[in-house]
Amino acid sequence: MNDSFGARLRSAMDERGPLCVGIDPHASLLASWGLKDDIDGLETFTRTVVEALADTVAVFKPQSAFFERFGSRGIAVLEQAVADLRAAGGLVVMDAKRGDIGSTMAAYAETFLRPGSPLFSDALTVSPYLGYGSLKPAVDLARESGAGLFVLALTSNPEGAEVQRAVREDGRTIGATMLGHLAEENAGESPMGSFGAVVGATLGDLSSFELDINGPLLAPGIGAQGATAADLPAVFGPAVRNVVPNVSRGVLKEGPDAAALRGAAERFADEIRAAVAV
């Protein structure tokens, strides 16, 4: 890949619309599609989503856990989905939230960020709560391979606040510290850097945080979790153009009808595009 993840992401969102569709084949969703919670149901669900949306949606975020629970056959379905999505021009953010130290972190990075790996993705979600420096193997390999990272910074789950809003001795919160590290990683990059943060769209006023990190902000919470496209400017302020809003159930509930899936994705993309226009 000649272009960085940040450059490819900016281009994809400008062309296809600023939308990330989560691929979350949990048991209740499979059931709502009339599918069994088994490998055949998983494969049918995933293939349907990929065939319906791969050539029109900018970004996809498969949740690795929902494939891992089926063992090696589930991983094989995920590998095929990643390959098919990328072949159709979609960007893949692997939602695996990996976080460890040393050689173990390096192995996670090799799994998802090394070109040629069966699970090579355009970007990976990572957890920095063993210390931001523990992510260095992933940061280094992402730079080398032209991939990106999304670091958990201000997540939408209520439990996250006890860590992310905790105040350090220097007076900064942990979440703000992570955003600061990412701003340093992205300094000088154009049109934006490749090292993003996960920031929940349901968190309300975040004006006390410096969200303009010159990198993407993956924003879960649109749709089923209660946030709307219209909320994005108030939450993200001047950084709203770099927001990558994630919608999962709001789109996936329309399946298994392919036309309904495409229609839902188009509606969300249009609503978000109108809301974040600058």
UniProtKB/TrEMBL annotation:
Q: Please give the Gene Ontology molecular function terms for this protein.
A: orotidine-5'-phosphate decarboxylase activity
Under the heading HAMAP family, the entry gives: OMPdecase_type2
Pfam families linked: OMPdecase (PF00215)
UniProt keyword terms in alphabetical order: Decarboxylase, Lyase, Pyrimidine biosynthesis
Describe the reaction catalysed, as an equation.
orotidine 5'-phosphate + H(+) = UMP + CO2
Q: What is its EC number?
A: 4.1.1.23
Write out the coiled-coil annotation as residue ranges: none
Please give the pathway this protein is involved in: Pyrimidine metabolism; UMP biosynthesis via de novo pathway; UMP from orotate: step 2/2
The Orotidine 5'-phosphate decarboxylase domain covers 18-264
Q: Which domain of life is it from?
A: Bacteria
Per the Swiss-Prot or TrEMBL record, the active site comprises: 97 (proton donor)
Q: Quote the Gene3D superfamilies the UniProt record gives.
A: Aldolase class I (3.20.20.70)
Which top EC class is given? lyase
Stated name of the protein: Orotidine 5'-phosphate decarboxylase
Signal peptide limits: none
Q: Does the keyword Lyase apply?
A: yes
The UniProt entry's sequence similarity note says:
Belongs to the OMP decarboxylase family. Type 2 subfamily.
What InterPro entries is this protein classified in?
Aldolase_TIM (IPR013785), OMPdecase_AS (IPR018089), OMPdecase_type-2 (IPR011995), OMPdeCOase_dom (IPR001754), RibuloseP-bd_barrel (IPR011060)
